[in-house]
Every structure is written in C-alpha cells, then in structure tokens.
C-alpha cells in the first residue's frame, strides 16, 4: 500500500421520493439562485427535472435552465453555462441527469470562478482550487460522477494561438481530490426504472471499468482495497444480470445505482497506483466517433486490453478470474490460462447484456486506427498506463484486436 | 435496500510520516488553541504525541493536554476536558490514540458547546447538532472511531435527581450521522508496529464485529453492501493472520488499519437495518468488569450470539460461512449446518489469534449473569436486536454459553 489521501465529502441521499429534498439540501449552501443543468428527454419526461425545480422554488430559489446536454459533453455547452452563471449571478448548480450532465455542471462550476478559459484546467494549464457548489439528482447510474471529483469534457476543435483549428476533437479527464466532488447527490432508483436496456448495459460496463482501472495495479499488498473492488465487481455482475432480465425491479436498480457510486468515489483505488489505459483507449474512439457510447466502447476495449496485458503480466488478471469470475484453476494450469478463462467469461457477460465486442458492433465500419493511435499518444504521452506500459505499437495491437 | 443517507466527510491522510502534517491540517479549521487528548504509555513512548504537538506549535497553535485516558473511557475525564476547553478557549481537539481517546475527544467536543450535562446526548435527552472540530492521529486500529460519527462513554455512577447513586456503571453509545465525525484522521501504520499481540488481536475482533453488526440483517436485496462487507471480512482474516505472525510487517499493519476504518465508517450498513446485539451484550460485561478489553469480550460473545441466532434464522449466517469462511456445503446439508461450520471456523480464528472464548478466558471467574441480563435490558429495552429479537431469556442463554 502506498501513502494516500482519501476525502469524499459528498452527502448521498438514497432511495424513493428523495428528489423532493433537493431544495432543502441546496439551501444548506446559502444563496438564492440555481442553475439547473439537464439533458432533456427522459429526465424531463420522468418528471425529475420538474420535481427538482419545484422543490428549489419551494425552498426560495430562483432557477435558470441549461438544457439539452448531450452524451460525450462538449466545451460549447460549458461556455454557455459559464455565461449564464455570470449573467444571473448563480449561487449553486444543480445537475439532473447522468455523467454527461454532471460533468458539464462541474466544468461550469469551476470555470465560472476562473478568469481564464475553463479548458485550462482540463489540459493542465491551471489547477482547480475552488468551484461553485454542485448538487446532483442522478438519473443514470454509470459514470459515478455524483460521488467523484472527476469530470470528462470534449473540446470540439483544438486551435492554436492564432485561432486556427489544428486538430479534431479531444476528450480529456480532469481529476481533483475534492474540489469537484458534488456537495450532495440525490439517488432515487425509481428514476432509473425506465432506462432503456442499451443505456443500462452501457452503465454496467462503465462502472465495472472504473473498478478495473483501479484494480489492475502492480502496487503490492492492497488486500483490503482488492477485496472491496472484487466484492463490488461480483455484486455488479449479479445485479447486472438481474436488472437486464427484470428492468423494473427496484431492488436490482438500487444495487446497480449504489455500486456505480462506490465504483468511482475513490475507495477502490486507495493505496495504489491506478492504470486508466482502457479509458484512454476508449476516449479516442468516442471523441472521433461521437455516436459511440462510452460504455459500449469500453465493452469492446476492456477484454482486448486485458488479453494483451495478461500475456505480459498475468498475475492480477488471474486473481480477478478466480475471485470475481469464479474460475477454478485446472490442475497444472498457469496464471495466463486462468486469466484468459476469466476474460472469456467477462466477454461473455458483456455479450449477454447486449454489449458489442468490436468496431463493427460499435457501428464504426472503417476505423482509422493509425489516427486513433496517433491522437492517443499525442494526448496522453508516448507510453500510457503502468500495469503494463503501452507504447504506440501496443495500443495499435489493441485497436487492431477490435477489427 | 432501504432508503439511507450516507455522509462521511472525514479526510483520511494515510501512510508513513503523515503525523507531521497535523498542524497544517488543523490550521484549515481556523483557531490557534488546541487541546491534545491522549492516553499516555505507547502514544507518548512512540513519539506520536511529541510529533503532533511539535507540528501544532509549528503551525502556530498553543496546545493544552488531557492525558491518561484509559480503556473503556469514563465520564469524569470528559468533564475534565470540557472544563479545559472552556478555561482555555480551545478551538480544536486533537486525539492521539485509539477509540477510547477519540471517543473522549468527541464527547468533549460535543459537551463543550452545550449548556447542560454532556451525558444528556448519550442517554437520549438531547440531540447532537454541533461540536468543536476533532482531528485524530490514530495509534490503534480497532474502534474505527477515526471515521465514524459514534462515541462510546461509560458513566461511572448513575445518580437520581437528588444526587444519590442508583446504579453502577453504564456504557452507552452515541451515534450521529456526521456531527461527531472527525474532520481529519492521520493514519500512519508505523505507529502501530509495536502494538502488543493482545491489543492487535482485540482490534481485529472489534473491527470484524463492526461489520457483523451491520451484516446480520433481515433487510433483503443488499448485495452491494453485503459484498463490500464480505470482502472486508475476508481481507481482515487474511491480514489478521499475517499481522499476528509478523507484527512488524508494515503492509499487514497498513491493511488492518484501513480495514478498521472502512468497517465502521458506515459503508457496510448502507441500505439496511443493523443489529448491534453483540456489542450491547459485550458492553455490559466490560462496564461491570472494566479489566475486560472490549475486543476480547466480543471474541467470546460473537460466536455464542451467532450460534444462538443461527438456530432460529440461519440464512445470513450460512451466507457468511460460505462467502467469508469458505465453507463448501456438503451434499444435502441445510443452512444451519453450513452456518455452524462457519461459526466453528470463526471461533477457531479467534482462538488462533489468542482471543478468549468464555468468561474464564476473560478473567471473569464468577460472573453475575442475572445482573448482566437485568442491566442489559434496563439500558436497551425489553427486546434487543432484530436479526433475531432477543428478550432476557435469550440473552441469559447467550451469557450462559460463555460459562
């Protein structure tokens, strides 16, 4: 175990009817003017946005709206939100939605208190120190952004100092210890009962990925963190199967929702070096092909990444296979055999919940792999990850495995 | 899963050398005057108290001391601390020690801002709403008080309104959502390397008990919370064996230390009704026989409680047996058989780490069981617990099983 700081001061209010409490919770942070950020579609139809706004009004808030946030959220809506905050002197930002909405709200909360361009934080030119308070009404369990200090935003066009476009979209992740953690998150599983199967499955993969990226680590002696991560993974596989079979099962939805938060609030990473290679590899795909859902992209990438690294460093993958996928080693089997059997079971689980396993399944017919590899290493450096460090030669092989 | 609120805003600073950061961390809460609470003995000899005080001085604090806090901490030292806080206009309380020291610091932090007697909070006459900030330098992993909103204090003598003593000692637990959670906890496993085997083992039992009391629940559909709890228990058994064999193994100490925090910060109880019967049954023993260490008392009580309830409601005990103690059900075996085999393995684990299994092992030669039963139900009501509700007849049988 390495030294670490763990600080997760989000208040989670979990269960039925809880979204009615948003006004009361927001009130604790003072202020009278709230910006409500949402996507539209299901968050509006389910009544979640309406109930949140009514609760805020009842608590004495004036509310302003930023609607229509799309998956793989982009910088233009963040800039629009920052303008709204400044124009209306907003005190608190309320995100009603899933990861894209919450990540946009976080970027606005940060950018609104900063004189320069908010993208400075994402590309590492500035360090986040303060942000407006963010509250969440969660409607999609997947990203874990309701409990994390992270935010992922796509910059549509990279420009040089003269304002000329020099590259296509770049999707970057910002990670803070606590500045970007929501102050509170209201989590009513009922709001997720009508999520389509596809979106539910994408969420299941995304939350598992958040654990994998912390679990596959060379830092030794992390038995406590390992066992928590493995326990969560087992619970997600079990409740994931259940929710796909019975989409209107409140209890399965509740378990999946809470698992998604714990998967990404940092508890599965305590004391060790993490490895976010699969996320990085996927981010390039969904940045260039924005119709690719992040979770679906991960469903294809993760088993391919695992197979590639298991050939070089099978230990932790074999542990995953035994402890999570219930692989019982055959007599005389070596770790790589155990690892591969675990990966096969994982891939089969992803397929069973309707997730793709390659570019074709993602709807990407003729991917430009050299361009993906080049963009990946331009954004993330010559070598990515550390469980097995990957250069362009390695990441090309992983992308090729998805053909 | 039931509705729940989970709010755990303690900042954990974990690892080597971290106690030097206490001044800097305390400074974040403003103020210039700190009361340092500790037990003496090992916390002083190890240099932990000295380093904390030097760090506080370097950060500009004046420090005042309350030393010599004993196990099973009592009300008299709390009152002394409250007087010190008022006399010296203290801004923050720093606990350097384990559960007894931290619980005393919490009681002082609460009582110092309250006009009446601090015991009002423990006996339910008053509701905690505010407290001075408490910071912790942890030296004993066991109680989990560094991350919990709880505090357990013993009132030496219960008096009536005329000031006459009407009963002997009573040990009561106060639980808050967040008022009593420490603001920060510094956790350097090096400070625990010299803990005696007995104290280490008592801590292992105590942290497991904190999980059991949340795990044995009739609330259905808590797969996520169950799997986290089971993972932690497996890690504690593994690292507990390791630390008893190699007391100076930093990594084993680190795992045990972090497990103790997660065992009691509430994560293992999310979404379900808990059952603190074993703690209640033990508290009566260590209140009347103060030489009984809490963890040792629990090592005797827990398997006896488990056997008693397994006969009436074996389901969850059998699940524990299979998932934590690796019991493989024999063909045709019924849940109670599986449960009993799991309990046998747990008892054997406790014995192997040097823990007692009965009153004699606890050094209580001629226990007054009727008095224990009477006191228990006087303090906790006619029926305690809910996994299997226990009346005086049941708790008498459990105490008798320790003869």
From TrEMBL, chains A, B:
Alcohol dehydrogenase iron-type/glycerol dehydrogenase GldA domain span: 9-189
State the InterPro entries in the record.
ADH_Fe/GldA, ADH_Fe_C, BDH-like
What range(s) does the Fe-containing alcohol dehydrogenase-like C-terminal domain occupy? Answer: 200-402
Q: Which GO terms describe its molecular function?
A: alcohol dehydrogenase (NADP+) activity; butanol dehydrogenase (NAD+) activity; metal ion binding; methylglyoxal reductase (NADPH) (acetol producing) activity
Give GO cellular component annotations, separated by semicolons. Answer: cytosol
UniProt cross-references to CDD domains, sorted A to Z: BDH
Q: Which domain of life is it from?
A: Bacteria
Which keywords describe this protein according to UniProt? Oxidoreductase
Q: Name one Pfam family in it.
A: ADH_Fe_C
Q: Which family does it belong to?
A: Belongs to the iron-containing alcohol dehydrogenase family.
Please give the name of this protein: NADH-dependent alcohol dehydrogenase
Q: What are the leading ranks of the lineage? A: Bacteria, Pseudomonadati, Bacteroidota, Bacteroidia, Bacteroidales
